[in-house]
Design a protein that fits this description.
Elements (H helix, E strand, L loop, with lengths): L2 H4 L33 H4 L12 H11 L4 H12 L1 E2 L2 E2 L1 H6 L1 H4 L9 H27 L5 H22 L5 H30 L1
Antiparallel strand pairs: 1-2
Length: 200
């Protein structure tokens, strides 16, 4: 997908997709309020309502202590996922309405700035993933320590989702945690077997 399509708005300014996402208005139920100059789906966006009154610096410090992403990257990555259309991400809409969409963001952004933050988020996720997998595969952590790392990472991720307004079912949480732990155990065992073969 090229950068031009990434910055394009859909013809009717609505988000596409088969199923509405939690916290994101169904485009068919949204009325545009031209008098206010704010699109209806922006006014009804409810992802970050739990962050009303939060200051950017405090959110940023929280994330910096627990992740590699900034508050800007977190907010824009979520918005890019929610305001995606058949032609790309509605970066113009996101940038122009950023303060209305996210309580702790106070300035509007250009489409280019939105794209840069999104790209930065993606790059950090990829690098963090590679770092984590290397740590799991290089035998630096014991199986128990790796479980602790996974638990801490899962708790932070769940907290961020809850702040965004996602309702997490307990059974789904446990199932997801078990799937992740199972995969990581398999990765560690496969890595151990590979090292033993190379040393034999």
């Amino acid at each position: 997908m090229n950068e031009e399509s990434e910055g394009a708005d859909s013809s009717d300014g609505t988000r596409t997709g088969d199923d509405p996402m939690p916290g994101v208005p169904d485009p068919e139920s949204v009325d545009e309020d031209e008098a206010e100059g704010v699109p209806g789906d922006v006014r009804k966006y409810a992802r970050f309502t739990k962050m009303d009154g939060a200051e950017y610096d405090r959110v940023n410090d929280f994330l910096r202590d627990r992740t590699y992403i900034t508050a800007r990257e977190w907010a824009i990555a979520r918005l890019c996922a929610d305001f995606r259309t058949e032609t790309g991400v509605e970066m113009t809409k996101i940038g122009e309405n950023l303060p209305e969409l996210v309580p702790f963001m106070t300035d509007t952004y250009t489409p280019q700035a939105v794209n840069q933050a999104r790209s930065s988020f993606e790059e950090k996720v990829r690098k963090s993933g590679a770092t984590f997998l290397y740590g799991a595969m290089c035998d630096f952590f014991t199986a128990e320590e790796l479980d602790d790392v996974m638990y801490e990472a899962t708790e932070v991720a769940k907290f961020l989702l809850e702040v965004e307004g996602v309702d997490l079912d307990v059974e789904d949480e446990l199932e997801a945690e078990e799937r992740i732990s199972s995969v990581m155990r398999e990765v560690r065992e496969a890595s151990k077997e590979l090292r033993e073969e190379e040393n034999s």
